[in-house]
User: Fold these one by one.
Assistant:
Number 1:
Amino acid sequence: MALYFTDVFSGSADWIVTDPHAQGTIVKVSQGTGYLNPKYQYQYSLAKNAGRLLGLYHYAGGGNPIAEANYFLSHIQDKLGQAVLAVDWEQYQNAAWGDTTWVQQFVDEIHRQTGIWPLIYVQESAI
């Protein structure tokens, strides 16, 4: 059985957060070590209150992977265990694109601190 999720970010309309064609919502929390989605708490609450399956993701900026993992975790501590965690690994605005050791270090750091293995959210052509 396939599960369908909507991917939401600060520019997403409210209806996308609870789109009835999807069972879950994955919310962008952060990017790099300086960007926090200003709507993430609201979008997360909207999805949770609608009974959606939940996910939270960090968009890789390609800086220090440990610092980026720490930045992401610093904003989601109260949600651990409620949502799937992921790193969005894309070429756009990612200085480390193509360096698989970067994404491995990020994932390992999240796991080291939380015991949770995050998903790597990436286009099929990069697998």
Number 2:
Amino acid sequence: MNWGFGLVIGGIVAKKLALKVPGVHYPLIIAAAYSGFTMYGLGLSATIPLTISTGGHSLESKMGVIALGQTIFSLPMLLTALAVLITLPVLNAMLHPKAGQPVKEIDPALHVESKTAAVESADFGGATVASRLNNSRVLSLLIGALGVIYVVVYFVKGGAADLNLVNFFILFLGILLLGTPQAYVAKLGEGIKTISGIVLQYPFYAGIMAIMAASGLVGTISQVFVDISTPETLGFWGLISSFVINFFAPSGGGHWVIQGPFMVDAANAIGAPMPDVAMSVMLGNAWNDLVQPFWILPALALSRLRLKDVMGYTVIMMFWVGLIYIAAILLWGFLG
């Protein structure tokens, strides 16, 4: 549904399970929950497929508008998603310490649940008109229903999913699920606390991306792979180069702005299939995220673990997912 689910919701569920199920190795279950984040590259919030399916995107003159049916909803990508969905949980389970091996369970004392005052209180600011509206379930239901109705009508009239529609749908779905406008604002505030590390570091990564683009470093990295590519293998080399670049530019949208022009020009020059090339960059981004410390920050904040506690597991997961993504992109290039 949304990349934030894999980034945050998975960690919350894992933490709850670790508190309820005795004998669970806490670092592994947090790493396993985070590993689902790699699926975002194949999901409804995959930045690059959504961007290139939206009219007016920056590279439309070179590659046109590519519908989601040619990217995340294509048969190769649906099979890839299924392969990850089935095999990654099995791998995660196999990594659990065997009987007799030491297990690090969650410390319940460090995870005492506390409700925020904003959520505990049934009265936000007294019995004023504004307070009643802020706490009105009817108002939230009305607003949310209008958003959902718009989406339904949009598709009935033949509209296609794009980045704007996905963001619109997630916004109104959140309003429906959280019940009242005030609850939505309160939960939004809690979520920002969880990702405060990302909010703080993001401007610095934006600066790194700007330096890489201006210096020509990304173009150099990409061009090395482009020079040795054929139409069938350009996607593979795009995947590998995307994996490397994501260490320095861990944003799907920013990543595409930097690497996309070079890959699109190369695809046009040698006649490589454009959906394959675009998805190779997307999957390289999602693959590297398994070992990208920037995106693990919310999981660490939720779990109160350190990076070294979970990174060993995510590295193993990264190698397995990489094999699946490489096989998918190569087969798509040769058989597509």
